[in-house]
C-alpha cells in the first residue's frame, strides 16, 4: 500500500513538472530578430522590429501575474528525451487557488488536486472505483518552470521571443533561464490572460516539451471536488517525497 501511495504521488508530481516565469526587467527583442524564423513545427509570428511588434507585447512580469491566477481547462501533450517515443497526456484545471490534474497511466485514471494557497495535496486513483488520499506536499503547490519563474522573477533572466498559436489561441513567448543553481533554460508561451500554451525546458538531464491540444474556460468549483472522501495520510508519510 505504501509503495502504491508513493508511486501515485511521484506520477502526479511528474505530470506537474513538465508544465507555467520571471524578470524584474522588461523583455527585450533578441538580437537579429528581424532575420529569425519561427521554431520548427510551431505556427508562430517571429519577433521583429516592425512598428508595434514589441511595444504591443506585455512585459513578462505582466504575463507572470496572470499565470498565477488564470482560469482555464487545458489538455496537454508532454514529450521528453528521457522517454523517447512516449507521449504523456494530461488535463489541467485552474481556478485560483485550486488546481486539478488528470492523467491515465497504464489504463488507470489518476487525479491530483492542489490548493496553491493552503498547500493541501490530494491524490486519487480509479481502480474499479475511486480512492483518494491526502498526502504531504513538499512543494506546497505547482512545480513547473513557468509557475516558479512567475513567483520568483528575480531568480531568472527573461527575454521576449515572439508569438505562437496553439489550440486556436495566440500567446506571447519568452526565453527563460535560471541565474544560479541547476542549469535550466525554457521557452514559455502564454496568452495575455494567463493560459499556458507551450513550454520547452532544457536541463543537464535532457529536455521536455509540453503543448496544449485543447483549451476551455468552462471551469467551476465543482470540478475540484474529490471523487471520493480522502483518507488523511499527511501525518503518516514523511515529507520529502521525490520532487
What's the short version?
This protein has 243 residues and is mostly beta strands. It contains three helices and 13 strands.
Helical region count?
A: 3
Instruction: Report the portion of residues in β strands.
Output: 35-45%
Order of helices and strands: HEHEEEEEEHEEEEEE
Briefly note the structural class of the backbone. mainly beta
Fraction in helix:
10-25%
Question: What value does the average pLDDT take?
Answer: 74
**Terminal CA distance:** 20 Å
Strand order of the largest sheet: 1-8-9-10-11-12-2-3-4-5-6-7-13
Runs with pLDDT <50, length 5+? Answer: 1-55, 238-243
Output the radius of gyration.
18 Å
Return the CATH class.
Mainly Beta
How many DSSP-defined strands? 13
What would you say the CATH architecture is?
Clam
Oligomer status: single chain
- CATH fold-level assignment: outer membrane lipoprotein receptor (LolB), chain A
Task: Indicate how many domains the architecture comprises.
Answer: 1
Broad shape: globular
Report the major sheet: 13 strands, mixed
